[in-house]
Amino acid sequence: MALEIANGFERTADVIELFDEYTKWIVSEDPAVAEVLRAQGYGEETASLDGKYGPPGGMLLLALVDGAAAGCAALHAFGEEGACELKRLYVREAYRGRGAAGALVRRLLDFARERGYTHVLLDTLPFMRSAIGMYERLGFVRTGAYYPSPYEDTIYMRLDL
């Protein structure tokens, strides 16, 4: 298995397909999450990936396994000075447990440090236990809400860089 972390802007159709798989999966786990996606402007996000995740402050990544799209993740400037937000981390089930998610997040963290961000924020959901464990191993800690979510069980995390 050859894992490569690539620029997602070079294969946006694959990224959008992965984003859509991700959103279908999380809504299937809990239909109430659909309201969170609406509140986050998910439709506008996929219509303008470069607007949200483009340079200089953002990054969109695609994990490739033997050339096939296996996962994705993104990062963008967020709110307060020095803050950025990690979004849309998703790895297809067939590729999970092989290090793709960790490689995506580590690349985004390196980018955040290079850009001078002071901390990374993220939100996640209680049923994403594997992701939460990985975030904690990478040094993320639970924090207070950094935006109002319509989903009361949203878990907010932060990593100081």
Task: Characterize the structure shown.
- The chain is an alpha+beta fold and 161 residues long.
- The chain has a single domain (3-160), classed as Aminopeptidase.
- The chain has helices at residues 12-29, 33-39, 42-47, 49-53, 100-114, 129-137; strands spanning 3-7, 59-65, 68-77, 83-91, 119-124, 141-142, 155-160.
- A seven-stranded mixed sheet has the order 1-2-3-4-5-7-6, with helices on both faces.
- The chain is globular and about 40 Å long.
- The N and C termini lie far apart (31 Å).
- Residues 1-161 form the N-acetyltransferase domain.
- InterPro entries: Acetyltransferase_Enz, Acyl_CoA_acyltransferase, GNAT_dom.
- Pfam families: Acetyltransf_1.
List strands and helices in order, with pairings.
Blueprint: E1 3-7, H1 12-29, H2 33-39, H3 42-47, H4 49-53, E2 59-65, E3 68-77, E4 83-91, H5 100-114, E5 119-124, H6 129-137, E6 141-142, E7 155-160
Parallel strand pairs: 4-5
Antiparallel strand pairs: 1-2, 2-3, 3-4, 5-7, 6-7
Protein name: GNAT family N-acetyltransferase
Organism: Candidatus Scatomorpha intestinavium
GO molecular function: acyltransferase activity, transferring groups other than amino-acyl groups
In short:
The chain is α+β, with helices and mostly antiparallel strands and 161 residues long. It is built from six helices and seven strands.
Output the keywords.
161 residues, alpha+beta, Aminopeptidase, seven-stranded mixed sheet, single chain
